[in-house]
Amino acid sequence: MLITPDEYAKQRGVSGRAVRKAIAAGRLVQGAFRDGGRWKIDPAVADQEWQRNTAPQFQRENKGGGRAKGEGGRPPRAPAAAVSAAGDAPMPKVPSQAQAAAVRTMYQARLLELDLKERQAQLVPKAEVDRVWFEEGRRVRDAIRRTPQQMIGDIARAVGGMNQEQRAEVLLILERHLVKTLEGLAGAD
Q1: Is the whole model's pTM more than 0.85, yes or no?
Q2: Residues near 40 by Cβ (< 8 Å), separated by ≥ 6?
Q3: pLDDT at residue 131 in the model
Q4: What is the DSSP string of the chain?
Q5: pLDDT digits over 98-109, tens only?
Q6: CATH number of the domain at 1-62+77-92, out of 3.40.50, 3.30.70, 1.10.10, 1.10.1660?
């Protein structure tokens, strides 16, 4: 059933002016159309568009600026959460201009704080930290890989001597286990 903008305004608990503004602003497109020069509203479609396209703080304003009244003089029930055009997921709540400005100010303050800390050398660029960690990791790896060569003489004395073939076999075993351990550490993030 099609109704007039004023009837729809009464049904929504807002002023007729608010409905006409919503039409003019393009917030009601599919739910409002001209019929013989007069606006007609399809309430079911218009309700979805109103929820989706009107900021929450403006959804129930009337001419007096007070809270709109529903049946029996009581405030109307809060409408169900707006859903996307596909009807499957709730639409995100649109922040007010004041909320957006507050968020913007907060992020600007954080950026200024980070900039100050960087200038005071309390922060270091990530690329520099990555480079230092890489160089230190390489230094540790090389030291560990040299360890079997440094140990083989002590091992040979501890077992009462080894020939060249035995020394080579022990070195391979030590190196294999150390490389396996280092590769495991390199893969652990």
Answers
A1: no
A2: 2, 3, 4, 32, 33, 34
A3: 93
A4: --B-HHHHHHHHTS-HHHHHHHHHTTSSSSSEEEETTEEEE-HHHHHHHHHHHS-GGGTTB-TTSSB---GGGPPPPPPPPPB-TTSSSBPPPPPPHHHHHHHHHHHHHHHHHHHHHHHTTSS--HHHHHHHHHHHHHHHHHHHHHHHHHHHHHHHHHTT---HHHHHHHHHHHHHHHHHHHHHHHH--
A5: 888 888 899 999
A6: 1.10.1660
